[in-house]
Amino acid sequence: MMTGIPPLNPLMPGLGIVPPPILSDMPMAKEIVHCKSCTLFPPNPNLPPPTTRERPPGCKTVFVGGLPENGTEETIVEIFEKCGEIIALRKSKKHFCHIRFAEEYMVDKAVYLSGYRIRLGSSTDKKDTGRLHVDFAEARDDLYEWECKQRMLAREERHRKRKTEERFLPPSPPPVVNYSDYECSLVVEKLKVDAKFLEAVQTLLAWLERGEVNRRTANSFYTMVQSVNSHIRRLMNEKAAHDKEMEEAKEKLKLALSGILAQ
């Protein structure tokens, strides 16, 4: 730490951040914190830092022990409201309390005060002094809010994933109309037109899969199937003729190239 620059205190006015982690070989200097009704004295920097339990998920509640016997809720609020908005405070008669903050990062500021010696006013009476021990605490409200947040994040992730998958899905085919004599006549006409042949075949297949064929409609379906068969046979003949023309054109090209090379 550079000389001439005082160490940063996260409880100083205007600093709404938690101090960055300091390496173990660098002593962390803490300052005296003055409040209206009490004073907080920092622990000995040569002593090891206070131990804390493993932080519960979504922790917004801290356990505060070592309070002065004459300490009041007003004094506790005065000390820890510097860390952030206090939602609830439950004080016990055995010189400890639980404090719940509005946000998780405020807990880190409160734990920073662990190890501080507290003195009420200028009294030196034992009942007016104590050593704060601040630690993470488990609370059902914290766990419930954390689980709700995790479920909300999971829902948002599933929603984003579903939207991403929907963008890559092929477009849905248009709905097929129900069978009727009128629609049947339209399909028969479409089967005769090359541009509408595929659409008509898809409609015919959908009707067949639905089981629209019965004694009354059997003749109509037979007519449509015959039209499809005729159209396919014509396409096959045209394809065979096209393939034959391609082979003849290839032979003519080979002969022409052979004549050019022979020259």
TrEMBL record:
It is found in: Cell membrane; Secreted, Extracellular space. Pfam families: RRM_1 (PF00076). This is Ecto-NOX disulfide-thiol exchanger 2-like. Belongs to the ENOX family. Keywords: Biological rhythms, Cell membrane, Coiled coil, Copper, Electron transport, Membrane, NAD, Oxidoreductase, RNA-binding, Secreted, Transport. Residues 60-139 form the RRM domain. It comes from the Eukaryota. Gene3D superfamilies: 3.30.70.330.
